[in-house]
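> forwarded from #structure-qc
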């Protein structure tokens, strides 16, 4: 399975979250391959690039430019962030437990449907902050559907 995380801090994020993914600082570096899952950090999603970076599944900040999804030819686009319209958001950010809220059904790269639910962020994911936690959890969910 070909999974890429793109952004200035992508390598550090992959290491911190234990993601089995290729890490690229820029979209241009990720070009030339067809990705099963392409996950973009906020800085990567802001980059005006529309080159050859095709992806079956695209994970990006929910407030990103919608035309970017057209550049990738993605079959599924999943937005993450703190807006009620984002597919992945945090529903509880206080106290000891943080919950990832999946607000709409998604299809993993393996073809499994995951229905809307709340999932606790534990271990390495629980140690990540804000959008980093959402990106890492979304990458894990979309790539395997495995529990967080």
């Amino acid at each position: 399975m070909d999974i890429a995380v793109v952004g200035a801090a992508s390598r550090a994020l992959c290491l911190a979250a234990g993601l089995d993914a290729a890490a690229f600082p820029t979209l241009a570096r990720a070009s030339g391959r067809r990705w099963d899952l392409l996950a973009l950090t906020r800085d990567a999603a802001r980059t005006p690039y529309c080159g050859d970076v095709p992806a079956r599944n695209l994970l990006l900040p929910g407030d990103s430019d919608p035309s970017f999804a057209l550049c990738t030819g993605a079959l599924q686009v999943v937005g993450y962030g703190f807006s009620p319209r984002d597919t992945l958001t945090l529903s509880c950010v206080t106290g000891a437990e943080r919950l990832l809220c999946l607000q709409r059904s998604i299809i993993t790269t393996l073809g499994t449907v995951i229905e809307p639910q709340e999932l606790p962020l534990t271990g390495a994911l629980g140690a990540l902050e804000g959008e980093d936690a959402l990106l890492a959890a979304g990458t894990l969910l979309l790539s395997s559907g495995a529990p967080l």
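QC bot note: The chain has one domain: 3-144. The mean pLDDT is 89.
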